[in-house]
Amino acid sequence: MSEAADRHADRLAEQLREMILIREFESRVQSLFSDNELPGFVHLCLGQEAVAVGACSAITDDDYITSTHRGHGHAIAKGLDPDRMMAELFGKETGYCGGKSGSMHIADVDRGMLGANGIVGAGQPLAVGAGLSIRNADSDGVCLSFFGEGAMAQGTVHEAMNLAGVMDLPVVFICEDNGYGEMTPAEEQHHVEGFEARGDVYDMPAERVDGMAVDDVYEAVSDAVDRARDDGGPSLLICETYRYRGHYEGDQMDYRPDGELDEWKERDPVDTLAASLVESDELDESDVEAMYDDAEERIDEAVEFARDSDSPDPASAFEGVYTEEI
Ligand SMILES: Cc1ncc(C[n+]2csc(CCOP(=O)(O)OP(=O)(O)O)c2C)c(N)n1
Fold it and tell me: Which of 70, 148, 195, 282 has its CA 20 to 30 A from that of 105?
C-alpha cells in the first residue's frame, strides 16, 4: 500500500475511534438522564457523529470552534476531556464551567472550544469575532461554526455570514441539516429547498455534503479550511445528517414518519465506516470491538470522576457573572 493510502487508512481508523467515543458518551448520557442522575436538559447528537469528527479532524488544537445546544460531539471531537464534560453534566465543580453550565454551555477557551450554546444562532456572531481576532493577530487560524438548519432562519446567522463575507474572515459555517428544528420538519420552516443558495447571497463557496460519511465531511472541511487559511474567506457547508434521538431527551418523537429512523440507521456513520475498514482489511472485527471496549471503559471512568466530584459551593453562583477587570 502507498504511503498516502496508509495515512488515509490510519486517519479513518482514528476517526472511527473518536466517533465510537462520542457514541458511547452520548449513549451513557441517555441512560444517566433517564435514571434521573443528570439535572437540566440534554440534546444528544447520536447519528451526527461524522460531522463533528470529520470537521474537527480537519483543524488543529490552535483553531476555534463554536457549537450548539447539541454540542457534546463537537466538544469531544475538539479534544475536550470526557471527565470534565461528564462532571459538568452532573453539575459538579470539576466540570468545565464549575458545574454551572450543564450540557448546553460547555466551553474550554484554552482548547479553542468557544462554547456550546443554548441560544439558537448565537454561535455564528462569536465565530465572526473569533475570525476577526485571528485576522488581527495576523495568524493563519480558522474557526469552524456549527449550527442546525433551524438556525438558518435566525437573523444572527444572516448577519454573521454577511459580515464574515464582507470582511473575508477565516470562518467555515457548518450547517448540520438533520431535517428537524425541534418537532417541525425543515421543509415547513424554510421556503427554499436546501441551503446552498445562501452561499451565492453572501458570495461564498457553498456545498452540500453527506454528513453520514466522515471522509466526505473531512475532505470538504479541509478544502474550506485551506481556503480560509489562504485568505480565501469564509465557506458554507451543509452536512446532511439525522439525529437518532428526539430533539431533547424526553421528546416523544411521534412526529417522524414510520421507518424514517431505520432508513437513516442503515447509513449509520459508525457502522458503515467500521464495516468498510474491516472489508478492506484495514481493521479486524476484534480491533473494532476493542475500540468499543476502550470507549466504554473511558466513559466508565468519566462517570466515576463525575460522581466522586463535589457539588459547587453555593457562594460560587455569583462568580463569573461580572468581569472583575474592564
Ligand atoms: C433564539 C432561540 N429561539 C428558539 C429557541 C428554542 N429552540 C431550541 S433548539 C431549537 C431548534 C433548533 O433546530 P436546529 O437549529 O435545526 O438544531 P437541531 O436541534 O436540529 O440540532 C429551538 C427552536 C432557542 N433556544 N433560541
Answer: 195
